[in-house]
Design goal:
heterodimer; A: 258 residues; mainly alpha; 2 strands; globular; B: 240 residues; three-stranded antiparallel β-sheet; 5 helices; 75% helix
């Protein structure tokens, strides 16, 4: 583990296996159920989120204690975000948006701890979350508005001539949404952690080169400290961005006519 | 995935860091080269374990930090960048679905309704308290109003009582005075009447005396005169 390779932190390895299911007599074609480091941090994050929110509100204090206040602030923060972006009708998606925000935020924060795994640095995770959001948007949009959902691609108050140009652009921008949504989160977390690891790697390599190296390591060490601060900001910000964009897209499903 | 691990093993030739920055550092750190080569060689020692089910798993033994089983061997040259390694997608999606699903259920069924309820109860309580305060304030206002009405009424009543008493006393006094005055007037009238009578009597007596005197005088001077003539003469004089 004590390698300066900035990529190895994204390795996924099996912590233990539940065994193989559905294998034929030769043991081939089966699906092995494995518990990986990625799964561990997903489970830890969910455990922390649910444990904190449920335990902190156990007292149901009329006058909140400090721990309960944090839960209430998180609740009201997301509730206001959903209500502000989608109106009262969007509040049926509040548990989903809240789960999404907390999941991304806490897995990102776990990733900031040295040697811990960053769940959102895996493309498949962010793609899955983005596709989940877009699926909900499309399914709900069509269920609620029927063909009216297609009004999403036709901005109101635009002359017919311009529409020929605008509609393809709108369709393209809609299709690029899951792409940008997933790649933004993935790219930010991946790049941030690589840069952090590269600078931290400089420190390790330089200090092993004797006295001169130790002096030379001061600069990358300072960079590492600064980048750690920046990464905390990025981690929280990306969770927020992902969530607020989810709200904006949900609003399109609820009110497709702009 | 295990087969790929085995082919990777064939390709793996130890020392060849992918990262250019690290390559540079390695080039500079000539001293470390030997050491690193050893470490890399050890990391890439891949043990193929075969169990009874015929299932193969690849084990890469890392030096110093314990053993771990790689889902695919990334330390080997030519391996894919971990986030693009499709062999890990299955487990990741599986665990993401389970954990995110569990989180959603816990949030939507337990945590969020509870927090929402806490906030609702608090809002209701505050509104209730405000309403109660408003009710009490109105009650106080009513009490003050009632007090002032009562006070005004009492004041008016006391005024009325005082006026009545004053009037009663005045009337009584007036009545008494009138009685006394009437009595006095009556006494005065009777006294005046008596005086008048006495006066008349006196006057009558004077005329009689005058007439008699006249008779006496005239008879002394001229002769006889009847009392009747004398009296008419006297009254003529008195009246004239």
């Amino acid at each position: 583990m004590a390698t300066t390779d900035p990529i190895s932190q994204f390795n996924i390895y099996t912590l233990f296996s539940f065994g193989t299911v559905g294998a034929d007599e030769n043991g081939a074609n089966g699906i092995e159920l494995v518990f990986t480091n990625s799964a561990l941090f997903m489970v830890l994050s969910v455990g922390l989120i649910a444990g904190y929110l449920i335990l902190s509100t156990r007292g149901r204090g009329l006058v909140p204690s400090r721990v309960q206040l944090v839960s209430e602030i998180l609740y009201e923060f997301i509730a206001n975000m959903v209500r502000g972006a989608t109106g009262n009708e969007g509040m049926k998606f509040f548990p989903f948006v809240f789960s999404l925000f907390m999941f991304i935020l806490i897995t990102n924060m776990f990733g900031m701890y040295p040697y811990f795994f960053t769940v959102a640095s895996q493309l498949i995770v962010t793609v899955a979350l983005a596709l989940l959001v877009m699926t909900i948007v499309i399914v709900y949009g069509v269920m609620k508005n029927g063909f009216g959902f297609l009004k999403l691609f036709v901005p109101s108050g635009v002359p017919a001539v311009v529409l020929i140009l605008v509609v393809p652009i709108e369709i393209l921008s809609f299709l690029s949404r899951p792409l940008s949504l997933s790649l933004r989160l993935f790219g930010n977390m991946l790049a941030g952690h690589i840069v952090l690891k590269v600078f931290a790697g400089f420190v390790v390599t330089l200090t092993s080169m004797g006295a001169l190296g130790i002096v030379g390591a001061i600069l990358p060490l300072g960079m590492t400290v600064a980048l750690t601060g920046l990464e905390f900001l990025v981690s929280a910000l990306q969770a927020f961005v992902f969530t607020i964009l989810t709200c904006v897209y949900l609003n399109d499903a609820i009110n497709p006519g702009h | 995935m295990t087969d790929q691990g085995m082919t990777d093993q064939g390709l793996g030739n130890g020392l060849s860091p992918r990262d250019p920055a690290q390559q540079l550092l390695v080039a500079q750190a000539q001293v470390d080269e030997q050491q690193q080569a050893e470490a890399q060689a050890q990391e890439n020692t891949i043990i193929v374990v075969e169990n009874e089910a015929g299932e193969k798993s690849v084990q890469a033994s890392g030096h110093g930090t314990g053993e771990k089983t790689e889902v695919s061997s990334h330390n080997v040259e030519g391996a894919v960048f971990p986030p693009f390694d499709t062999t890990t997608y299955g487990p990741q999606l599986f665990w993401l679905a389970i954990t995110f699903g569990a989180l959603y259920l816990l949030m939507s069924k337990v945590a969020l309704p509870r927090i929402g309820e806490i906030l609702e109860v608090r809002r209701d309580r505050i509104e209730g308290d405000l309403a109660e305060a408003e009710r009490l304030r109105q009650k106080t206002d009513q009490a003050i109003e009632a007090y002032e009405t009562e006070l005004a009424a009492a004041r008016a009543k006391s005024h009325a009582l005082a006026d009545k008493t004053r009037n009663d006393v005045k009337e009584q006094l007036d009545n008494k005075r009138r009685e006394v005055e009437a009595e006095l007037a009556k006494q005065m009238a009777s006294a005046e009447a008596r005086i008048q009578k006495t006066k008349e009597q006196a006057l009558e007596n004077v005329e009689q005396i005058a007439a008699e005197t006249t008779v006496a005088l005239v008879s002394k001077l001229t002769g006889k005169i009847s009392i009747k003539e004398a009296r008419s003469a006297v009254s003529t004089v008195v009246k004239g």
